[in-house]
Design goal:
Elements lengths: L1 H14 L6 H5 L4 H14 L2 H6 L10 H11 L1 E4 L5 H11 L2 E6 L2 H11 L5 E5 L12 E7 L7 H14 E12 L19 H10 L7 E10 L1 H7 L4 E10 L11 H7 L4 H11 L20 E2 L6 E2 L2 H15 L8 E5 L5 H10 L2 E6 L2 H14 L4 E6 L11 E7 L8 H11 E14 L6 H10 L6 H11 L2 E7 L1 H17 L1 H7 L2 H19 L3 E9 L7
Helix pairs in contact: 3-10, 6-7, 16-18, 19-21
Bound molecules: S-adenosylmethionine.
Length: about 550
């Protein structure tokens, strides 16, 4: 059976490698245009390579910068099935050694012809399923359109091997066609395996190294934007994974933190149930109300005779206005929403202010729903990706604004995360965070239990602000907004009770009670002074003294 599969694949690629042209490699008649557009896009996603251009590494205070440099000094493997000619040269410019593998001799010959002069590339004609290298040989494995030509069994064996070949902390980048064929080139037969992104996620993160103590965790996964732009095709998907130690007790019984999020708090049903109470597109406090700038409504207070504002409305206006308005967004600015959920705030910012938004969330359920909504919203200004904020790497000064709503409660090392935000921002860039916080210790047993069960890591608003200052942010405002939180919770509770019948059309009585009880418990924990909510604003200084 395994031999038969290998023979079929060989036959398929013999048919499509006769002239070793880019059209053959990409199996598409628009290959030249696609190739020209997507190459810089793919390259910009490769942290080691991109990072090498970042001379800021010399500052020496960012761990990743050291990694980039050591990557250059060591070895980088290029384990690719196709398009070697398009990527090998670029990778070889940056790494000290590149091993380029393909099982079609024609492609290898053409690659050697184009890139052999560089002197640091080993060209290897080999079937990847038979390939082997010693453990801890490489820092980086790059693979483009390879896994879709392997069966699940072959892929599992290869992933296990790759986990061995990579050094601890090393990266695997790969890209595949998902769901169905993308290229328009005629094929007499097509043995390609078109998996869903979820299937790749599952396969890649469920395998462990032979010793059982290492596995892959997701850094980033997203659709290749070039294919969306040119072919309206979202099904070209790429991934960046990192080899990390497996921690059996680390994620409340789940192998990875992503699995914990997707299966516990953010199952698809759980998300939609939250959305019902927070409002369309949102899974955090106040939904659109705490996101947008809302004009004040005048209310006629009975007995006064005049049209005046109710005090509560004035207060609530002041709160509301502060959120996005404080960022002074300008069309064309780049915003990253860390823990974007299902994207309501991102569509709002893009449509209202003309900014370009990257919504990043580690939960694949969240991003799946966000992408479904993006099809309806039809705004090219918003992109989504599955990404782990604690592992994701961007070139310095990539964004004007870092925005994050009720997400960082999930993240352990706030200082390390804020250091990342600092590097991602342009000088003068702005940060806006809302997050669950806590009161001073000791906490009540109910709050202790709640925090433990959710796996949250909470600080007081003051401590939170100190983390930001320590990293180098200026104009830090750490505001305790618990009062506003309580107001919003009461409103959400009342609204849910009002729409009970409607709620029960989509969800069960148990779901309804879960929400009602959950909100009452939040209010109780706030009344004890334990649960608090913070709003944080800060800026990266315009001038950095190095
Ligand atoms: C309460 S939801 C808020 C979603 C969204 N910000 C909103 O306001 O609707 C928190 C989000 O944080 C995401 N998250 C948790 N840890 C993350 C990480 N390390 N990187 C990226 N997202 C993360 C979760 O998957 C979840 O979608």
């Amino acid at each position: 059976m395994a031999n038969e599969v290998r023979q079929t694949m060989t036959q398929f690629w013999e048919e499509h490698s006769r002239d070793a042209t880019v059209e053959e490699m990409m199996l598409d008649s628009s290959a030249a245009l696609l190739s020209q557009e997507e190459k810089p896009e793919i390259i910009s996603l490769l942290p080691c390579l991109d990072g090498l251009n970042v001379t800021a590494g010399a500052r020496g205070w960012d761990r990743e910068m050291h990694m980039y440099i050591s990557c250059n000094e060591q070895t980088l493997t290029l384990l690719k099935r196709l398009m070697s000619i398009r990527y090998t040269g670029h990778l070889a410019k940056l790494a000290s050694n590149v091993t380029a593998v393909d099982f079609m001799q024609n492609f290898i010959d053409k690659n050697r012809e184009d890139n052999g002069y560089r002197g640091n590339i080993t060209f290897l004609q080999a079937d990847v399923t038979l390939l082997d290298f010693p453990n801890n040989t490489f820092d980086f494995v790059f693979s483009n359109w390879l896994f879709m030509y392997l069966t699940d069994e072959e892929l599992v064996v290869l992933i296990e091997k790759m986990l061995g070949w990579l050094r601890p902390g090393g990266y695997l980048f790969f890209r595949e066609s998902c769901f169905f064929q993308s290229g328009d080139c005629e094929r007499t037969f097509n043995p390609t395996v078109y998996r869903t992104p979820a299937q790749y996620n599952h396969l890649l993160t469920s395998v462990t190294s032979k010793s059982g103590d290492n596995g892959f965790e997701i850094v980033m996964s997203k659709s290749v934007q070039t294919y969306i732009k040119i072919k309206k095709n979202q099904n070209q998907v790429c991934w960046m994974l990192q080899k990390v130690p497996r921690d059996a007790d680390g994620h409340q019984g789940y192998t990875t933190f992503q699995q914990f999020l997707d299966n516990q708090q953010y199952s698809r049903r759980g998300i939609l149930r939250y959305e019902k109470i927070f409002g369309d597109g949102f899974v955090s406090t106040g939904g659109l109300e705490t996101t947008k700038v809302r004009p004040v409504q005048k209310t006629n207070i009975r007995g006064s005779g005049d049209t005046v504002f109710k005090m509560q409305e004035i207060l609530s206006f002041l709160h509301l206005q502060e959120f996005i308005a404080m960022l002074n967004l300008v069309p064309g600015q780049r915003v990253i929403d860390v823990g974007c959920g299902i994207g309501g705030g991102d569509f709002y910012m893009a449509k209202t202010y003309g900014v370009d938004v990257l919504g990043m969330d580690l939960s694949s359920n969240m991003v799946e729903i966000a992408m479904e909504r993006a099809i309806m919203e039809r705004t090219p200004k918003v992109q989504f990706e599955i990404g782990d904020a604690t592992r994701r790497i961007f070139t310095d000064a990539s964004f004007d604004v870092v925005y994050s709503r009720d997400t960082i409660l999930h993240i352990n090392d706030k200082g390390a995360l804020f250091r990342k935000f600092f590097t991602w921002l342009k000088p003068g860039g702005k940060l806006l965070i809302t997050d669950y916080c806590c009161g001073d210790r000791p906490w009540s047993p109910v709050f202790e239990e709640y925090v433990k069960q959710r796996g949250y890591i909470l600080y007081t608003p003051k401590e939170y602000g100190q983390f930001l200052e320590k990293v180098g942010f200026v104009k830090v405002q750490a505001l305790d907004r618990t009062e506003q939180f309580v107001q919003v919770l009461n409103k959400e509770l009342a609204r849910t009770q009002e729409i009970k019948q409607d709620f029960l059309e989509s969800f069960s009585e148990e779901d309804y009670n879960y929400i009602i009880e959950g909100w009452k418990e939040k209010l109780h924990r706030c009344s004890l002074g334990d649960q608090r909510w913070g709003l944080f604003l800060a800026e990266k200084p315009l001038d950095l003294i190095s």
